Amino acid sequence: MPELPEVETTKRGIEPYLSGHTISDVIVRQPSLRWPVEDAILNLKGQVIRSLERRSKYILVHTDIGTATWHLGMSGSLRLVEPGTEPRKHDHIDWRLSSGKILRYHDPRRFGALLWTANGDEFTHLSHLGPEPLTDDFDLDYLFNKSRGKTQAVKTFLMDGRVVVGVGNIYANESLFLAGIRPTTPAGKISKTRYQRLIPIIKQVLDQAITQGGTTLRDFVGSDGQPGYFAQQLLVYGRGGEDCKTCDTRLKEIKLGQRATVYCPKCQR
DNA sequence: ATGACAACCTGTGGGC
DNA sequence: TGCCCACAGGTTGTCA
Predict the structure, then answer these.
(1) What is the pLDDT of residue A222?
(2) Which of A97, A108, A124, A185 is buried deepest, with most CB atoms within 10 A?
(3) Catalytic residues of A, which ones?
(4) CA angle A141, A146, A150 (to 5 degrees)
(5) What is the per-residue pLDDT across A6-53, written as a single tens digit (0 to 9) for each?
(6) What's CA A68's distance to the chain center, in Å?
(7) Is residue A5 within a helix (H) or strand (E), and if so which, with residue range?
(8) Nearest protein residue to B1's C1' (by CA)?
(9) Degrees to nearest 5, angle at CA A147 with A186 and A7
(10) What is d(CA A121, CA A40) in angstroms, rounded to the nearest whole number?
(11) Which residues, 6 or more positions from A204, have their beta carbon under 8 angstroms from its beta carbon?
């Protein structure tokens, strides 16, 4: 699924049709997602959407009485469809909007979520998250200090949402390749100089992916139903056994923290 | 505290 | 062609 760039792409795509518009109806066909969709979500009916916000891989939809929060899980997508469009298999939730569109949530694996938080209630899902990678909070001092004493592989460390949010498996692989860092290196043993190189690379990779509309591996589509184009630029992800684009060495694929990890044994030390 | 691993669920692609 | 297994963008919970 969607990593940060795909979520950001989705948020930007749906925003014009949501912000300032009223949710006239909420239809839940399948409430059994990552967490059950609670009946309280029906409180959205009649509410005006005041603003949208992305935090980590969550999309927050703010109204006067509370916030609805989407998470796309591994296989989720939000699309805008015309009223009357027949729901397909795995189209679990609709929001009918005064903008004349329907916001439709599709998610075969159902690892996604739609959560409701009334004003004043604590939203625990976001409370323990690390900084956003594209803000200045994610800087050298922060990451270097956080890494000290960690024996965990640097790739697993980067994918831990308590360290930094939004760096998923694709972009962790890509960033480490571009930074010349071997994914298996213990996070605590990497020098400050190397982290200094890595940080801007992470930001740049995510930025570029957002510009390209995200990465479509098999089924990610933006709110307009179009795929993202960053997949064409992937240097290592999904290329295990193929040649490194820099040095022609055969890329190695291993498992790290249950996730496919690809690196060049020559370029990444 | 840390880190390794299973679990949630469905679809797809490769190997035989 | 068909079957079975491994694997897929994420996150949480459990266990040692």
Answers:
(1) 87
(2) A97
(3) 2-3, 57, 259
(4) 135
(5) 999 999 999 999 999 999 999 999 999 999 999 999 999 999 999 999
(6) 17
(7) helix A4-18
(8) A150
(9) 95
(10) 13
(11) none
